[in-house]
Amino acid sequence: MPEQQSAPHPAQLPAAPDAYGPPRAREVSVAYRRWANILVWIAAVIAVLVLVALVASFILLAKADADVDNAAYGYLAIFLWFGIVAAIPALLAVGIPGLVMKLRVRQQARASGGL
Question: Could you tell me if residue 40 is left (phi over 0), alpha (psi between -120 and 50 degrees) or otherwise beta?
């Protein structure tokens, strides 16, 4: 029996199909950039309010300690501390995503040659 040889196959490089490649990051939209800026600014405002409340509470404690008739100022300082404790989770909830979003916007701009 004569041996039949099949036609030679073209050389194929071993590669994964396109569907299995690494996911490509989507383009950052203008709305995404706007929300990143809004979240960072809200976090900055909350941080400034927390610092003002902290300083005001120390001033109120000093006034309450100076005179017995001004003892109510000590209670106001305690209420400010409760406000500070309540504002810290809000600061973290707004600030961390805002910073992550800003980081993604900067990475996208650097990758596209914007910076």
Answer: alpha
